[in-house]
Specification:
about 230 residues, alpha/beta, Rossmann fold, Arc Repressor Mutant, subunit A, 2 domains, 5-stranded parallel beta sheet, 7 strands
Amino acid sequence: MSATSLPPRLRVVVMMAPGLMREGTLRVLELARQAIASLTVVDDLLTLRQTLSQGGADVILTGLSGHRDRLRDFFLFYSHYLRFNIDTTWLLYSEPLTPLLTTLSPLAPHEGPLCLPHDLQPHLLHDLLQKRQAMSHLAFMNSDSFPRMPANIVLSWPELQVLSHFVCGALEHLTTSTGGFTTKTLSAHKRSAMRKLGVCCDQQLHALLHGSRLCPARRSPDVVVSQG
């Protein structure tokens, strides 16, 4: 690239359910239009799959709302897509413990999406897009574009599975013939996870996972997956 040439503009795909967050995100993208070559907006995971199969993307920006009932499908899809599209940057608007839930995918943390807080200020998203345009995906992901918190709570794989299904209201799926849990083991892993997270009832756990005002003074814990 010559000293006077501009960096290539970005192909951006957005997946968000209609609502205030999507409207706000699209307003920010309009302000960053000089960095964007094309912008495609879809409502759901199926349409996202179809869109990406027809043409690639430099940046994929998604939320979690609209597909909580298929949370595992979502994480497995981005894992597959990022594994074979190594130059694509995936920005994921997250609930407080989305970094915990992304451990459902087989990707290493640095290979997965960049998790953004759901209340990210618009100017910060604008700055992220400008920064991504100016550098490669790998350089962007290694540049501490968004601060990552150190992990200090160790959760086992079964505990993560239980929490991920709890957050999307699908605990009963774990006790089916393909779920691998009995009612007794599910309850035991849930109680263990709640003890580590410092909550004592379903209401507090739900509040913690969703960043509810029911736990206004509690900071979302930093979590790591147990290697055992």
